[in-house]
Design brief:
Elements lengths: L11 H16 L4 H21 L8 H13 L4 H20 L26 H9 L6 H16 L3 H5 L6 E2 L4 E5 L5 E5 L2 H18 L19 H15 L7 H14 L4 H8 L4 H4 L1 H17 L4
Length: 306
């Protein structure tokens, strides 16, 4: 007896449900990257469920546990499985809000425990060495110096950096208007060093790079377009390699360093939460683990009976 072919695509019913969810994400102002990642994860599950004979209303916690087990057997990392389950939790929540489900089956499925990983944090002198070694001769050097001064001075994500417009910088108030996750706007302070670097870039760098007078983006590529996040990561790799910093410095490492140095200087977690644009204080609490780990290391190195 021949086995029936395994569907390579979700069923029409699944596609309709996924399109409903995608429309809901757009209505809520979710970032394009978030929508793309959700779409990929959910389409993978929808294809699996179609092959297993389950439409969306028939999915139970047991079905989701089977799916998680299949991902684990396929060699997916716990962080990947947890991300995919989070996407499913959000998807079924939307279905329930639209009256298509009596309850969210993903609420009863535990995510695998993620390994605790402390973020990379640069020492203050390492940050200074990185920033001070970026010259201010060419338009691209002026741009890079302004870009990474802003990243560290205000704790910006790479996506927030590239979304800055010229009008986002408030020189008189010494602050930035930042478009964060979910199109949420926050106002953050920016230091004198960063503002000086931005001023030099606006005077001597950006006019050379700009090809379209109507372009609002603050940070421009050599072709005059708005930078991408991959451009930010690539340029940071160039400078960290030239300076000789080891360990893979990313834009997020500058953000982590910003928060940790504030904590070291006496800032409280609530203030840091607002500056970083975290929706929940629990996200910000990772920095207390960074500080705790640093103190334990100092204790072990210094105490005679440690």
């Amino acid at each position: 007896m021949k086995k029936s072919a395994i569907p390579a695509e979700p069923s029409d019913a699944w596609i309709a449900a996924l399109e409903l969810f995608a429309a809901d994400l757009r209505r809520r102002g979710a970032a394009e990257r978030t929508r793309h990642e959700y779409a990929a994860d959910l389409r993978q599950f929808a294809t699996w469920a179609t092959a297993a004979g389950f439409d969306a209303p028939a999915v139970t916690p047991r079905v989701l546990r089977r799916y998680a087990a299949s991902m684990s057997e396929a060699g997916h990392a716990p962080t990947t499985i947890a991300r995919k389950l989070a996407a499913l939790r959000s998807f079924f929540r939307t279905m329930r809000e639209h009256g298509d489900l009596p309850q969210n089956p993903a609420d009863l499925v535990s995510s695998p425990k993620r390994p605790s990983k402390l973020p990379r944090v640069l020492k203050a002198d390492e940050v200074a060495r990185l920033l001070d070694r970026i010259p201010a001769s060419t338009p691209l050097e002026l741009r890079d110096r302004a870009m990474f001064e802003l990243a560290y001075a205000s704790g910006l994500r790479a996506e927030e950096l590239v979304n800055l417009d010229v009008e986002s910088v408030g020189f008189d108030a010494e602050e930035l208007r930042v478009e964060g996750k979910g199109s949420k706007t926050r106002i953050v302070p920016v230091g004198e060093e960063a503002l000086t670097a931005v001023t030099r870039y606006l005077e001597r760098g950006r006019p050379v790079l700009r090809s379209d007078p109507a372009e609002p983006a603050l940070l421009l590529s050599k072709s005059g377009r708005r930078l991408s996040t991959s451009d930010v990561r690539r340029r940071l790799r160039v400078w960290t390699r030239l300076v000789g910093l080891q360990g893979g410095v990313s834009p997020h490492a500058l953000r982590h360093s910003f928060a940790t140095h504030l904590l070291d200087g006496g800032a409280d977690l609530r203030a840091i939460q607002e500056l970083l644009g975290h929706a929940s204080i629990s996200t910000t609490q990772i920095y207390t683990r960074v500080e705790s780990a640093r103190l334990r290391t100092a204790y072990a190195r210094s105490h005679p009976r440690a």
